[in-house]
Design goal:
The protein is of the alpha/beta class and about 270 residues long. The protein has 9 helices and 13 strands. The protein starts with 7 loop residues before the first strand and ends with a helix.
Length: about 270
């Protein structure tokens, strides 16, 4: 690469790298990312998913690294080796407190870590969203045998589904001591350790590669992408972004993910 500045791009997974219609990865997306890397640019996944939930099909696209768990776990590929640069997990005491109060308010609770996903199987799932996610993990043959009551059990982050929004403020009196809450819409909330986000992950990676902030780009489609969209110098919202109010907070609105949106944006910003 002789004429282009080296740039770095960070991609959300769901609804960004994948089609909002069926969750597939378009060939144009795979090819565009490969071409950008061939041109010397750095391509990173930046996802709220923890590593255990990052499917092999995403890794097979070929990225320079992954920020997972909303900035709590970072890997980079250097000289053919995958190196873990950062990992932050919660104590069992904190995890137990969350479990206790989730049961008290009858919340569907999913703990996530880099090694496993774990529902509280001692209480029945009550919400459509929780049941759907549980079945999705079953279909992927995920090991969900962990017992959150065991003394070794910890989590990196967690999500909940609730049946009564009036229970949420009381639950958050506990969770807000340790976690920031991200409103994912409807009855779905995501909880990330205080001080960590997709944006802090980007800051860490920029420092690691010694790349100027002015050459940073992020791609997303929802509220939990807002920290990274606000942080990078250039921000791209996919055409399928929800809520649409995010369109006013980014530097470029691309086509929908299902309509070659990644390709369009990488061409627009001259990655390829």
């Amino acid at each position: 690469m002789t004429t282009m500045k080296r740039k770095i791009a960070f991609f959300d997974i769901d609804g960004t790298l994948t089609s909002e219609l069926d969750g597939s990865i378009l060939p144009s997306t795979k090819n565009a990312i490969k071409k950008a890397r061939d041109n010397g640019h750095i391509m990173f996944i930046n996802t709220g998913r923890c590593m255990q939930n990052v499917e092999e099909r995403f890794l097979e696209i070929g990225f320079d690294g992954i920020i997972s768990g909303c900035g709590t776990n970072i890997y980079c590929n250097e000289n053919g080796d995958c190196k873990e640069l950062l990992y932050v997990s919660q104590t069992h005491a904190i995890t137990s407190e969350i479990l206790k109060h989730a049961r008290k308010f009858k919340l569907d609770l999913l703990f996530e870590s880099k090694n496993y996903v774990c529902f509280d199987t001692k209480t029945p799932l009550l919400t459509e969203g929780g049941i759907r996610q549980y079945n999705a993990f079953l279909s992927r043959n995920y090991d969900m045998s962990q017992n959150p009551e065991e003394e070794h059990f910890t989590c990196d982050k967690f999500v909940i589904w609730f049946t009564d929004i009036e229970d949420l403020p009381a639950f958050r009196q506990v969770s807000d001591q340790y976690f920031e809450c991200i409103d994912r819409g409807g009855n779905f909330r995501e909880f990330v350790p205080i001080g960590y986000s997709k944006a802090t992950g980007i800051q860490f990676v920029l420092n690691h590669y010694q790349i100027a902030h002015e050459n940073s780009y992020s791609f997303g489609d929802s509220n939990n992408d807002l920290p990274m969209l606000n942080y990078t110098n250039y921000s791209i919202a996919m055409g399928n972004t929800v809520p649409a109010t995010l369109f006013d907070q980014v530097t470029y609105v691309s086509a929908k993910s299902s309509e070659n949106g990644i390709l369009q944006a990488l061409e627009h910003y001259e990655f390829i």
